[in-house]
């Protein structure tokens, strides 16, 4: 997969889930793409997916904003997809870099509605614009050396994660305000067949069974630094601060419990979200 389109497939999978949920919740929503436009497939598929969902949810309003320098092929591909859209979907193609996202969102009338952005840049202006509004989410692709999680948090997202890809010089980031959406995005990334860096910087394969030993060390380090944490807090740490998923955190915690490196309160029962996990000092 070419490095410049490595994020397209997982973004489209997330979009497929996001659109119907956003429209049922708010009745109108905006999807914004900020990229160079060299691959028109992303914009074309985004428009087609928007049309499919809007056709099933009558009375809703969905806007697709494509902010791209583009090629000669981009307008024709978008136009062909737009010709098949129901009246509930509006498409706007605007030239320019992702830094123009604030202007583009205002022009598209996105204020007050959920917005999902796809950006192939870590521009602070674009990230801040993507974080503005209700139920905002952003999927970002940048170079492997770029600290996307910090940039997304600084932009205003309550929750953010990033993964470094092993087979491409790229890092994928995601900002949201929803734990559920964050966990679903992580599952989507793992289902895409991409390989990530684990907390030790080693390749992490999505093949089963998943080696959660590096995650266990990371969770133990978090507990040692900050003291007891609930399972919910540790699941969130795994999803935001590492390439692992929430379910992997539960497996890693069970391994730590089995080896006596942590204790739990209460000591028995299901390892639910409100269970408090404490590091054993000798293990530190």
Description of the molecule:
It is built from ten helices and twelve strands. With 284 residues, the protein is an alpha/beta fold. It has two domains: 3-197, 3-Layer(aba) Sandwich (Rossmann fold); 213-283, Winged helix-like DNA-binding domain superfamily/Winged helix DNA-binding domain (Arc Repressor Mutant, subunit A). The protein starts with 7 loop residues before the first helix and ends in a 5-residue tail after the last strand. The strands form three sheets. A seven-stranded mixed sheet has the order 3-2-1-4-5-7-6, with helices on both faces. Strands 10-12-11 form a three-stranded antiparallel sheet. It is elongated. It has helices spanning 8-26, 40-56, 73-82, 101-107, 124-131, 148-155, 179-191, 213-226, 231-241, 246-258; strands at 28-35, 61-68, 89-94, 115-119, 137-143, 159-164, 170-176, 196-197, 203-204, 229-230, 262-265, 276-279.
Describe how the helices and strands are arranged:
Blueprint: H1 8-26, E1 28-35, H2 40-56, E2 61-68, H3 73-82, E3 89-94, H4 101-107, E4 115-119, H5 124-131, E5 137-143, H6 148-155, E6 159-164, E7 170-176, H7 179-191, E8 196-197, E9 203-204, H8 213-226, E10 229-230, H9 231-241, H10 246-258, E11 262-265, E12 276-279
Parallel strand pairs: 1-2, 1-4, 2-3, 4-5
Antiparallel strand pairs: 5-7, 6-7, 8-9, 10-12, 11-12
Helix pairs in contact: 1-2, 1-7, 2-3, 5-6, 8-10, 9-10
């Amino acid at each position: 997969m070419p490095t410049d389109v490595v994020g397209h497939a997982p973004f489209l999978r997330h979009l497929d889930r996001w659109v119907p949920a956003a429209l049922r919740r708010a009745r109108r929503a905006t999807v914004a793409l900020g990229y160079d436009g060299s691959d028109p497939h992303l914009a074309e598929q985004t428009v087609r997916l928007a049309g499919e969902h809007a056709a099933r949810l009558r009375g809703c309003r969905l806007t697709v904003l494509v902010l791209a320098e583009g090629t000669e092929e981009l307008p024709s591909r978008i136009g062909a997809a737009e010709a098949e859209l129901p009246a509930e979907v509006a498409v706007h193609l605007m030239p320019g870099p992702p830094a123009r996202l604030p202007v583009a969102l205002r022009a598209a009338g996105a204020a007050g509605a959920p917005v999902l952005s796809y950006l192939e840049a870590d521009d602070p202006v674009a990230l801040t614009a993507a974080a503005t509004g209700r139920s905002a989410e952003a999927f970002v692709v940048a170079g492997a050396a770029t600290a996307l999680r910090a940039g997304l948090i600084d932009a205003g997202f309550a929750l953010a994660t990033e993964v470094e890809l092993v087979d491409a010089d790229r890092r994928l980031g995601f900002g949201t305000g929803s734990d559920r959406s964050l966990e679903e995005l992580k599952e989507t990334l793992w289902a895409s067949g991409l390989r990530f860096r684990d907390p030790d910087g080693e390749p992490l394969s999505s093949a089963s069974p998943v080696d959660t030993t590096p995650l266990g060390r990371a969770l133990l380090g978090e507990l040692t630094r900050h003291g007891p944490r609930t399972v919910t807090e540790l699941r969130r740490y795994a999803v935001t601060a590492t390439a692992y998923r929430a379910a992997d955190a539960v497996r890693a915690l069970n391994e730590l419990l089995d080896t006596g490196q942590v204790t739990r309160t209460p000591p028995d029962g299901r390892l639910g979200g409100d269970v408090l996990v404490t590091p054993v000092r000798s293990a530190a």
